[in-house]
Amino acid sequence: MADNRAIGIFDSGLGGLTVAREVMKLLPNENIVYFGDTGRVPYGTRSHDTIKKYALQDERFLLSHDVKLIVAACGTVSSVAADTAEVLPVPFVEVVSHSVRAAVSATQNGKIGILATSATINSGAHKKQILEFIPNAEVIESAGTLLVPIVEEGWTGDTDPVALETLKRYLAPMIDAGVDTLILGCTHFPVLTGAIKNILGDKVTLINMGVSTALAVKDMLQKSNGLRDEQNTGNKFYVSDKTASFQKVANILLGDYDKDFNVEQVDIEKA
Hints:
- By secondary structure, this protein is of the alpha/beta class.
- The chain has 2 domains: 7-94 and 211-265, Rossmann fold; 97-209, Rossmann fold, CATH 3.40.50.1860.
- The chain has 11 helices and 10 strands.
- It has helices at residues 17-26, 48-63, 75-80, 96-106, 118-123, 125-133, 147-153, 161-177, 193-200, 209-223, 246-254; strands spanning 7-11, 32-36, 69-72, 92-94, 111-116, 138-143, 181-184, 205-208, 236-239, 263-265.
- It has a 6-stranded parallel sheet, sandwiched between helices. A 4-stranded parallel sheet has the order 6-5-7-8, sandwiched between helices.
- α1 packs across α10 (209-223).
- It is globular, with a radius of gyration of 18 Å.
């Protein structure tokens, strides 16, 4: 029997819109409720207890919209607060484990790179899970600290000099190590795919967390007969704070999907 309730997706900011985009592409009939905690971003600088507190508040907000499944489209939450799923009444999907499985399946030489934020790298979540699958894997990690602001400035072209020169520095250790697979471990990074391919070439497989997560969502809903059997009736987007660059950044991350969406600001502490 179909389940026509919406899919809930949350992130500490707007980066999770790249995950929402992949879900929309793969499951066009599904309604999406997205919450970006833009008023408290970034989560990565917070303590584990605070991150879990924020994640639970975000999840409760989505549950108030009667969602049928929750996606934590946030590397930090997925790395350190995935156990919040234990108290949820609906299925939960995070972005780390599915991207790891995709990378493990893709690699031929056991050399896997991880390009992520410093908080995600410091959590060790990707590396730990990779080594559980391939104990002798060589995992090369790089914290792309400057890449999020570069994306939000819109410097994302395949040949943009700022993006290319910055990426060359972050990717140098991976080139030296000869990785054949690279996990884009931050939801902002897929929009830099063209520039990354210009540096690494076509022999390195790029793992987009949004794609692997969307596939996991589809699989989970198919197995539970939870897919929507009606056409999409509209997606909803919420944030905890607006900024002057909100629409610009949202359009960059969503691409061609829902560019003219309406967004509502909510007080997450009271919602």
